[in-house]
Every structure is written in C-alpha cells, then in structure tokens.
Amino acid sequence: MEIKQQIQEYFNHFHANPEVSWKEFRTTEKLKDIMNELDVRYNIFDDLTGLIAEIGEGEETVAVRADIDALWQEVDGTMQANHSCGHDANMAMVLGALLYLRNETLTKRVRFIFQPAEEQGNGSLSMIERGAAEGVSHLFGVHLRPAEELPLGKVSPALHHGAGIFLRGKITGDDAHGARPHQGRNAMDVIAAIHQFVKSVYFSPFESYSAKLTNVQMGGESLNIIPGSATFALDVRSQSNDLMDELRKRIDEGFASIAKLYNVGIDWEWTDYTPAAEVSDEAMEIARTAIQNVVGDDNTAEPLHTPGADDFHFYTIRKPELKAAMIGVGADLTPGLHHPDMTFNPDALDIGARVLAETLKNA
User: Fold this and answer.
1) pLDDT tens-digit map of 57-107
2) Angle at the Cα of 308 (from 274 to 116), degrees rounded to 5?
C-alpha cells in the first residue's frame, strides 16, 4: 500500500474512534499495533495513555509530538467524543512522517511523542515528567489550520499560539421569594456584573486578548425562587504570557470588588493554564526550508499568529534549551476548529506528513 493511502487509513480509524482526554485507551492500543506492525521500538506507561516511539540511531535526538485526544461536544443532538479538534489528522500526519523516514539511513534518533490530554491543557506536562523530551535538541509539532488562516497546499513554519486559561467560580448568596427580592442576595445580579466587568477590561489593542463567560449554572425548576447561588466559568486568552499575568491580576481584583459590592461570597480558581508559544528561530528556519523543499516557495507561508492555545508550548517552558516550532498545514478546513461539523480536504494529510519527514530529517 502506498504511504498516502496508509495515512488516510490511519486517519479514518482515529476519526471513527475518538476518545476524550486521559481515556485514550483504544487509541493507545491502535498506536501499539501500528508500531508492532512496523517493527518500531516504543514505550507505554502503566498509569497513562499515550506512547513514545523511536527510530534511528545516533548521539542526537529530534522529536515530533502528536496530540491524541478528542473533544466532548454535542453532535447532531448527541453528546459524544468528537475529533473536531483535528487531533486525528495530527496523528495521521505524524505516523505518515514515520512511514516516510523508517527506511531512511538516519544518523540520529527520531522520537515520536503521542501525547494524551492536550484539550485539558496539561497532557504535555505528564509526558515531560516521563522523560519524553529528555535528550531532545529539536521538537516539532503539527496542526491543521482553518481556511481563514491557510488554504490547502500552503504550510507555515511556525504557529504563535496565545496563552489560555480557565477560571471556575462559585457565588454564594441567599435565595429569596420572587415577591421579596430584598430578602435575598441574587446570584443572577452578580453574574450580570461579572459579565459586564470582563467585557470592560481593556489593554492595548495592538495585542490580542479576551475574557468571556462560557458556563453558568443556577436556579432550579421553581420559577418563583430568586437564586442565591451559582457556578460559572471563564475562558481567558492573550497573545503573550506577560499579558496573561496582567489579565489574571485584573480579574482577581474585579471579582473581589464585585463580591464586596453585592455582599456575596465569590470563590474561584484558575485551572488548565496553557502558555503562549515560545518559538525557536532555528527550529522555524529548519521547518521553513523543509516546506520549501516539499511544496515550493510559493506555498511556503509566513509564521502565523493565532488566538488559539496549545499545550505543546509547555515543552519549551519547562525545557528552555529545547528548540521548538509547530508547523501549520493548510487544509481548506471549515467551518472552524472545534466546530462539531468541522471538515477539511484530506490531501493535506500527505502534505503535512512529507513536510514533517523532511523537517525531522534535516533538524
């Protein structure tokens, strides 16, 4: 079977068998089966999904990372695991790179990191703790890009993701009868104040950022009760790690003021932080040369700045000496990443695999 067809079959399997973060059991088993079929050495873990494989021999080690988890979302009225994140494509492209390289004469080791739980924002940390980046000089990632960023055929040598973090909070006030609102402390008023507050946090317009409510739960079936308690969540993003620190400080101060103004308790915690990209110029230039060699100068795009986040960048935060870049692959992807009906042109898979193989060979 030719490699392009095999890559498509890998994608078809992973697309049809999505699994959410930390529960990628069948996905890991399939990866094991593939490595056994290809006679590629690999390691798995007793307490974690995911897999690390290696080919080649030598003093130096370069690596590529594929994220393997799916989202949990509503698709056609049913809540289910769904690869609208494109991680099925990422796995297929990385496996394709392995196929293109495994019969090459390599003077170094090439490591393939199949990482769980990117969507939780901390799967990379679990792999770092288990030695995935030990001895690695250069690390590359790959991700399909929405059509609004890159069309099919074009490839970018670096994605400059922003920082992202979630906030989970709880409001504690007092319920009241609908006819006697003065006797309670209305959580709905507090939610409205929080919504207005996060929309009025301003920084320089020359750097992108956002903060928005993404989840609110309060009240019950009795419509004559004014709810005193509620839970809520924020999604907060910025283009840089420094601006994220400022955003968090401003929100912390604002919530303390709102709690005092409405005489309620507000408890909150920041969770699942994902840092902004720290891109290595050297790694980016290696990727750029590979892209030029595979698809030509006309299809070599500039580095992309995107408001999305990816826990790939924890590898460089935890190991600053690591030279890393994530490659963006145009795929005519619509309507967008994380949309339940996301779709793309499958010709992008072989393009991404060949670019990755050329990048790893030359790193």
Assistant:
1) 999 999 999 999 999 999 999 999 999 999 999 999 999 999 999 999 999
2) 55
Nearest to 276 by CA among 207, 192, 187: 207
87 known ligand binder: yes
Cis omega (within 30 of 0) for bond into 335: yes
* Residues contacting 23, CB < 8 A, separation 6+: 49
85 labelled binding-site residue: yes
Residues making up the chain, counted from first to last: 363
Q: What is the mean pLDDT of residues 217-243?
A: 96
Q: What is the pLDDT of residues 134-170, one digit of tens each?
A: 999 999 999 999 999 999 999 999 999 999 999 999 9
Q: How confident is the model over 191-216, as a mean pLDDT?
A: 96
d(CA 230, CA 220): 11
Residue of 324, 331, 319 lying closest to 359 (CA atoms): 324
Collapsing DSSP states into helix, strand and coil, what is residue 156? strand
Domains in the chain and their CATH numbers? 3-160+277-362 (3.40.630.10), 163-274 (3.30.70.360)
For the beta sheet containing 51-55, the strands, ordered from the edge strand earlier in sequence to the opposite edge, are: 41-43, 51-55, 109-115, 61-67, 136-146, 323-333, 155-156
**Cα–Cα dist 244/246, whole Å:** 5
13 is in an annotated binding site: no
In the 8-state DSSP scheme, what is residue 206? T
Q: What is the pLDDT of residue 290?
A: 98
Report the candidate in 226, 233, 231, 119 with the shortest Cα–Cα distance to residue 179. Answer: 226
339 annotated among ligand-binding-site residues: no
pLDDT at 1 over 80: no
Q: Indicate whether 121 pLDDT > 90.
A: no
CA distance to 189, 289, 306, 325, per residue, from 283 (Å): 50, 10, 19, 6
Task: Report the run of H or E that residue 224 belongs to, with start and end.
Answer: none
Q: Which residues pair with 53 in a beta bridge?
A: 42, 112
Q: How far apart are CA 89 and CA 110, in angstroms?
A: 20
Give residues with Cβ within 8 angstroms of 321, minimum separation 6.
none
Residue 119 marked in a binding site: yes
